Amino acid sequence: MFAATIHRHSTASAGAYHQIGVETGVGGASSHELITMLFDGFNDAVAQARSALQQRRIEAKCKAITRAVRIVDEGLKATLDLDGGGKLAADLSALYGYVALRMTEANLNNDSAALDECVRLMEPVRSAWVAIGPGATATPSAQ
Description:
Layout: H1 2-6, H2 10-19, H3 31-54, H4 58-77, H5 86-109, H6 112-131
């Protein structure tokens, strides 16, 4: 159920991952691994943004936050099955929308607390995703 809610199928996940400019390891990855890569990429982009913000490297901060927002919008949110995923998919979509908004605000206001908030909000979802394990399979309705 959780796996079906998160992604439509592996080609949608791979396509989203390619769209946000991350190529390494995508070709042979399962749907589960692709989504995990998206979560990890988000965390990496936020860490880069935080570092750039502290060092007052504005262009690098903007680039990292833009990458994080794209991962959330074009990777995680875009692959949700809103038709078949029920309340969980709708709740994740709302969370991802909020995180993208807060990341944008963090960029505009140089707000490291907003970056921290986004990481705190995403971590339980990432942890739950990792906990279901790579053996998770989508239900027939999600394929």
